[in-house]
Amino acid sequence: MKTTIAIAHGKAAALFIDLQEEHRRDQRLLSVGFDRVIDNVVLLQAAARANRVPLHHYAYVVDVAASDIRPFHPRLPDGRSAFSDKDDPLTAICAEVAPRGEEPLLVKSEASAFGQGLGKELKAQGIEWLFVAGVWTEACVDATVKDALKLGFRVALVKDACASGSLAMHQTGILNLANRLYGGAVVTTDAACRLMAGETAQGWSPQGPVPLRYEAETIATLYEDL
Q1: Range of the domain at 110
Q2: Which strand ranges, in their side-by-side order, compose the sheet holding 2-5?
Q3: Given this model, what pLDDT does residue 44 score?
């Protein structure tokens, strides 16, 4: 249900997941609505910087020679990773939303952003809320949100600053997370920017077990109502 949210100053950080060139230029990895996501992330990052909300950037990059590479990871005939290879220039973060100054960029080869001890670092800083945006909704965003909840963070999932390989994949990804986003909320970019500025804003939070029971024909309507 819709609820009013307020976040105390100094209690939030923003995570930007895999906003890489491959998602708008590699035909195999195109993310539907990616230009919209980039435009909205520009607004989110400006609000975060203006209000001293720490920004954390992530890029998914695969090094097939690494010791932790999964045994069945898909490879090209020449042995390189079939996607997001470390030598592919398209793994670079899009220039419009790239880190500035000393903002950290963490390279990961797993879906979740929490594979390198970030949770403990954020807890030590007194962070309680995480704004989450990026791609793909049902993959790396999903894994990051679920790990954040497991670690005890409250998540503001910015639905119009996420995207996936199709609109249906994105919308169902958001609905599935919304069903279990206890303690957090699904918000819009506008709401997230107002929350960063210390204002109140509306978000959608689950008030019971699996409140969103969707069928194919109701996905779009339920998503819009969040």
Answers
A1: 2-225
A2: 2-5, 201-204, 185-187, 154-163, 129-135, 12-17, 55-60, 105-108
A3: 98
Residue type present at position 57? H
CATH number at residue 19: 3.40.50.850
Q: Are 61 and 111 in contact (CB under 8 A)?
A: no
Domains identified in the chain, total number? 1
Residue 196 has pLDDT above 80, yes or no: yes
Interaxial angle between packed helices 142-150 and 167-178, expressed in degrees from 0 to 180 and rounded to the nearest 10: 10
Burial of 69 (0-12, 13-18, 19+ CB in 10 A): middle
CB atoms within 10 A of CB 182: 13
Distance (Å, whole) CA 204 – CA 221: 14
Q: Are strands 55-60 and 154-163 parallel, antiparallel or unpaired?
A: unpaired
Rounded Cα distance, 161 and 183, in Å? 20
Span 146-185, pLDDT tens digits: 999 999 999 999 999 999 999 999 999 999 999 999 999 9
* CA-to-CA separations, 3 to 11, 186, 200, 204, in angstroms, rounded: 19, 10, 10, 6
Token pair 């670690």 in the structure block, residue: 151
